[in-house]
Amino acid sequence: MITLKILGCGGGMPMINRFLSSTLIHYQGKKILLDCGEGTQVAMRNNKTGFKNIDIICITHLHGDHIFGLPGLLSTMGNSGRTLPVTIIGCIGIRDAVKGLLSTIAYLPFELIIIENPKNPLSITHSSHRLVVEEYSIVNEAEIILNILELDHSSSCMGFRFDIIRKAQFNPEKAIALNIPKQFWSTLQKGQTVSYDNKVYEPNMVLENKRKGLKISYITDTRPIEAISDFIKGSTLFICEGTYGDDADLKKAIKNKHMTFSEAAGLAKSGEVKELLLTHFSTAIENAEIYKSFADDVFENTVIAYDGFVKKLSYKH
Amino acid sequence: MITLKILGCGGGMPMINRFLSSTLIHYQGKKILLDCGEGTQVAMRNNKTGFKNIDIICITHLHGDHIFGLPGLLSTMGNSGRTLPVTIIGCIGIRDAVKGLLSTIAYLPFELIIIENPKNPLSITHSSHRLVVEEYSIVNEAEIILNILELDHSSSCMGFRFDIIRKAQFNPEKAIALNIPKQFWSTLQKGQTVSYDNKVYEPNMVLENKRKGLKISYITDTRPIEAISDFIKGSTLFICEGTYGDDADLKKAIKNKHMTFSEAAGLAKSGEVKELLLTHFSTAIENAEIYKSFADDVFENTVIAYDGFVKKLSYKH
Where is Zn(2+) 1 bound in this sequence (chains A, B) (predicted)? Predict the structure, then answer.
């Protein structure tokens, strides 16, 4: 099961009653943070998420409302006893941005691994007590495949899709029938071949067909370009910016390279996602719920995010 | 009259119910901000202070809890229509720190004037619709003289003292008795000499002796070094860090280069200030009021700051 928490759902500037857009993915005892505007660490305190187990931070783009919280959060993670490396994944310029933002920090007690503008999917796996990010290859048994899409905003901006792989089920009856010694079962379950006593045991001898995992897409900030529909296709959850609620604000959305609720819902529909979660509301929106019908008219299964909103996603049997 | 607002009174990390230490001085329609940790712009929204008229930002030192709010605040000031230059005054390294923190900001609609580690007092005057900062000289008719003291913290750190000058009173009876034409009265009142019709009119012909102004001292973060007592001598208000409330935490205070309440009160006493305002409380302090007696035992006129605390200072007749 995956738990997602919306730490904040605001865009542009931090407000009194709304933190800036940021989402925390809880995955098997570890955390992946998506965007980190000013105040994200306070939102994390509010939600009692803890600071130590954040292994990966994905930054969509370098606008302040998505990145200015980074130096404070990393300092606080250091103060909270973090010593394991932290991986930051971001668009073109992320390396210089982090260098600049952290220039006054004399020392962090952990290594920062920065992956700038990756062109190919990345694999995420548990290793060395943390989530490790590497270039994805077929050989690589990724737990999560992180896919990236270039978006259409006023600065270079990346959309993310997390394909959470569900392990193939091990069939003990087949293993018994084939006389495979029990000591090799866990190795085969991990997808690795075993050679022993002139015999070769292949994973497909004991594993059932792969089961359907989960797809979480995160798209902010951007105009609703066509490529997004394919990218998010069939997502279990599609987290998308809805900077403007009312269709009447379409001109502003076009000018500022953002989306209206109904445009986001249009992507949800063409992308055939299970559920749309709207976030990143303009500072002019006090209560986003009142604009919900603009999305509902296009895509029925829409939820309006709020700070502290929690979503649990389970595998379907 | 001067109004001061404590925007936040926390030290170390931003907390849910306490903003980081920051003070806003309202002076004749303009504002001077002292320190800017993560969330200071939100504290300003909380206090409805507005963002446009902040002419000067003084940064004591480069630790995150005093500076990480700067990129966000400056962005928001730009979004709020600021076009007049903003002066930032800070310790050694402030120029590089600002450059780094602002490296992702493509454009600010105002000029930043940075004064790094000034060695001599500065003068602050109204000019060109803003408060202008220059090196202080006797000739210069400063409205405020800003004095700076090197403190004793774990990084280079500056204490500030604002000497707010009260203009000498104009005596119209003297001017009438000396037959000084009315058209020159305002020039003389400004302290400038007038030559007209072979006559020379000096300001001291019509101005009474200078009246006592106000002294506001701002000392954080530091150990209580001796030089502070002289620096703050006779202050109307002495804003001082009290990171630790209990005397039992003296060892921590020494180790982390901070002060206890009683140490700050000791400075208030030896500096013969009118009033001590304690701020910059450790994250371990939930309610600073319960430690007040540690200060009171040393210096009677102590006030414990809280977020949103307002102090109005008037000239004494």
Answer: 61, 63, 153, 221
